[in-house]
Amino acid sequence: MTRRMLQRARLAVAAALAFAPAFARAETPQVLWEATPGGAPVRFSPSGATVTGGSTAPELLATLDGTVARAFARIRGGSPVAYAFSPNGALLAVGTSGVTLNLAVYRVSDGAQLWLTTGHSNGTKGVAFSPDGASIATTGPDRFTRVWRAADGTLVRAMSDGFRMNAAAWSPDGATIASGTPGAIHLWRASDGTLARTISNAGAATGLAFSADSQRIATADGLFTVATGALVRRFAWPSADGTPIAVAFSRDGSKLITTGEDFSYPTIDHGAVRIWDLATGALLKTFDQATGTYVNSIAVSPDGSELGWSFVDAASGGGTVLAHYPF
Q1: 229 and 104 inside one domain
Q2: What residues have CB less than 8 Å from 19, skipping those under 6 apart?
Q3: Start-end of H helices in the chain
Q4: Residues in the chain with pLDDT < 50?
Q5: How many helices and strands (H and E) does the chain possess?
Q6: CA 130 to CA 147: how far, in whole Å?
């Protein structure tokens, strides 16, 4: 794995800012490191010592410097597109783009693959552990949300979505499983798989995040109440042709961090990271990921002091970035 060090990252950002459109309100974050190739979604381990990475095979990168702390066996036929750590950090669930055999669970301590199965036909797009670590929820293009026993991969339950689902999230209180696709969120009762609610005006529900109190759920361009599905607030993506993709709450719950692609034919096509004020919906800060056409994930460190994201570009294939928060 090649490394782009801090100086290179800062130079790239500075070059991008010179040509940034006025709406971007671009900032220059303190980038700690950037690792390429990459592009797989970023998730922090519960300890904060590592983040997920890799391009063709799952990897854990040290948050200290971006070096590979653990490499896992590649799942044949597919690259990682979804990650989730168990709450105690002992297990890592991986969904891949493979047609079959696209859901695996690894033991983090030694990298052993504990089980492998076909989570969904044509790829497992979303994975989420239950708060007690006993179960894993997954989504995929076969229009099902499924629940698996984390210990051995036994299928517990399958819920019919009716849509190709890209995202999965499990509420912190354990009561609700969310599955998401552009335009819709399904909220399932975790205890028995009953569909509790459909949010039909969900916007860019390719990424989902529950608030810490489990009362709200966010996409990259909207905030909704879990109890009623009511829209609380929209976050207006400044680029009319852009694509909001991923979302995370700040640790104190006062901000929303979103990522995606800013696109305006033919001059603008780059990834972006944005920070929004939840109380007012105001756009506070923007970072243009100059070396990537889109930013496809976002994660906040357990102590709230760092952001991690992944990006995709034609030159390197993609990469993983760690930066100080707030920038």
Answers
A1: yes
A2: none
A3: 6-18
A4: 1-24
A5: 1, 28
A6: 10
Residue (of 232, 202, 233, 242) closest to 219 by Cα position: 202
**231-234 β-sheet, strand order:** 209-210, 216-219, 222-225, 231-234
Dist CA 327 CA 59 (whole Å): 26
Write out the residue range of the structural domain in which residue 141 sits: 72-234
Parallel/antiparallel/unpaired status of strands 80-85 and 91-96: antiparallel
Please give the Cα distance from 287 to 274 (Å, whole number): 6
User: How many other C-beta atoms are found inside a 10 Å radius of the C-beta of residue 25?
Assistant: 14
Q: Is residue 25 part of a domain?
A: yes
User: What is the DSSP secondary-structure string of 44-81?
Assistant: B-TTSSEEEE-SSS-EEEETTT--EEEE----TT--EE
My answer on whether 279 and 211 are in the same domain is: no
Alpha carbon separation from 195 to 30, 158, 183, 187, 283 (Å, rounded): 43, 12, 17, 6, 34
Is the Cβ–Cβ distance between 237 and 245 less than 8 Å? Answer: no
Residues 56 and 103 in one domain: no
Answer whether 32's CB lies under 8 Å from 17's CB: no
pLDDT digits (tens, 9 = 90+) for 265-307: 777 788 999 999 999 999 999 999 877 889 999 999 999 999 9
Q: Which residues contact 157 (CB under 8 A, 6 or more apart)?
A: 146, 147, 193
Q: Is residue 297 part of a domain?
A: yes
Residues 224, 82 share a domain:
yes
- Whether 246 is in a domain gets the answer no
Other beta carbons within 10 Å of 38: 25
CA distance linking residue 148 with residue 157, whole number of Å: 7
- Sheet containing strand 59-62, strands side by side: 50-53, 59-62, 68-71
For residue 252, being part of any structural domain is answered with: no
What are the tens digits of pLDDT across the range 173-206? 999 999 999 999 999 999 999 999 999 989 888 9
Number of structural domains (the chain) is: 2
| CA 307 – CA 271 distance, rounded (Å) | 15
